[in-house]
Design brief:
The chain is α/β, with parallel strands linked by helices. The strands form two sheets. It has a seven-stranded mixed beta sheet with strand order 1-2-3-4-5-6-7. The chain has a two-stranded parallel ribbon with strand order 8-9. β2, α2 and β3 form a beta-alpha-beta unit. α3 packs parallel to α4 and α7 runs parallel beside α8. The protein is globular and about 75 Å long.
Length: 414
């Protein structure tokens, strides 16, 4: 095979990076401008979106340094036994692409991951060199996210954190047994050890900056991780429990969930079908409940069905409320904030507005309706000055009434 051009490498390595969800914008409809209509495409790989702490959407060049790999993880399309077209960038090529795209206002930063080539240390050195060239030779001040390698020397991971805004280490699978079975080259203890080292480095550097004005920053945007959903037999309860332990143990900024996607020439140990994408969505909703709504992991697990999985037809918050109806209805004029956050249909912003409004007036049902998208979902679980649900909260068919209606799309609808 002849030497690949930069554009050909970019096509291969940007497409290979699409399986990493930890900075991707997903769930949109597939659209493109083929045929001469419109401008742009949602299907192409290479540029994805992340969100800054102030809410800004940041466009990132999302690529692999290489899709060559010495590991043979069953679920990975870039595993060494996979029959895919291979390519490899040099650190200088990655830096040049990033600067070139940045100057054209295509991107505001870089997300860089890689397969393992030669060794973990060699690959990590190459990734750190990409970031070093950008920071030191180009004085690049944009966002950099480096996917670090847990098997690499801790000093190399430390160097990555000095150049990157965020670092991440994928735990890959929610259970140790699943990781041993599907990724025999990886070790759960080694992965968590590397995450623990990053956590301590972040804390140490934060402390140093309090005492020394010019102390270097270390991964100021923190660290994140990703779990694959549906590649093994792990239930949603297993995944939620693992995520909770990761948040508590390593102070992660985010845990990302990526629905397993069948790959060409797949191993016989993998499932033949991907899990429903709504399952991934329900896990993100449960993640929000733990991070912003005050739910404990065990409470989210209580919302699961008998098989340990979250229901797909309703969200986890509604599933929990239906199982614990004795906690409702709540008086919106008297209930504390932590309980109002458990009312289905009331988000954090809506609860804050309810608390602000009730300081000045006694709230009626129509007042609550002004701060929520669906008052029908809220009504069975609240009491207002002019509203009491009486037997509505205890109706046997309440789940059916509140579940989103399933609609059959028409093939030739206008």
């Amino acid at each position: 095979m002849g030497q690949l051009s930069t554009i050909e490498k970019l096509g291969i390595l940007a497409d290979a990076a699409k399986y990493d969800a930890s900075c991707a914008s997903s769930g949109t409809a597939k659209k493109n401008s083929l045929g001469g209509k419109g401008i742009g495409s949602t299907e192409g790989m290479g540029i994805c979106h992340a969100y800054a702490p102030d809410g800004r959407c940041i466009s990132l060049l999302k690529i692999l340094l290489t899709n060559h790999c010495i590991f043979d993880c069953h679920y990975c399309i870039n595993r060494k036994s996979s029959n895919v077209r291979r390519a490899r960038f040099t650190p200088q090529e990655v830096a040049d692409l990033t600067i070139s795209f940045y100057r054209r206002n295509y991107i505001e930063g870089l997300f860089l991951s890689s397969g393992i080539i030669k060794s973990s240390n060699f690959t990590m050195e190459q990734m750190v060199e990409c970031a070093r060239i950008l920071r030191e030779e180009h004085d690049f001040c944009g966002y950099i996210h480096l996917k670090t390698i847990p098997e690499a020397d801790p000093e190399l991971v430390h160097q990555a954190g000095l150049y990157a805004d965020r670092v991440s280490i994928n735990v890959e699978l929610p259970t140790d047994s699943g990781l041993t079975r599907l990724a025999p080259d990886k070790n759960a203890q080694q992965i968590e050890g590397a995450m623990g080292k990053v956590k301590s480095d972040i804390a140490e550097m934060k402390d140093a900056r309090k005492r020394f004005k010019h102390a270097p920053r270390f991964a100021p945007a923190g660290q994140s991780t990703q779990m694959i959903v549906g590649a093994d037999a792990a239930s949603d309860a297993d995944i939620v429990g693992k995520a909770s332990r990761l948040y508590d143990g390593f102070k992660l900024r985010r845990v990302y969930y990526s629905a397993f996607s069948p790959i060409p020439d797949a191993s016989a140990v993998l499932p033949l079908k991907r899990p429903p994408l709504i399952r991934e969505h329900r896990l993100y909703q449960s993640d929000w409940l733990m991070r912003f709504y005050g739910y404990q992991a065990r409470e989210v697990m209580q919302a699961t069905d008998h098989d340990g999985n979250l229901p797909l037809d309703i969200d986890p918050k509604l599933a929990w409320a239906l199982k614990f109806r004795e906690s409702f209805p709540l008086d919106v004029n008297r209930a504390p904030r932590e309980m109002l956050l458990r009312v289905p249909g009331l988000g954090v912003t809506a609860v804050n507005r309810v608390l602000a409004a009730r300081r000045h007036k006694t709230l009626r049902l129509e007042d609550v309706g002004r701060v929520t998208v669906s008052i029908a979902k809220v009504r069975p679980f609240i009491i207002a000055a002019d509203w009491r649900p009486t037997t509505l909260t205890d109706r046997a068919d309440l789940r059916t009434l509140l579940a989103p209606k399933q609609e059959q799309l028409e093939l030739f609808a206008a």
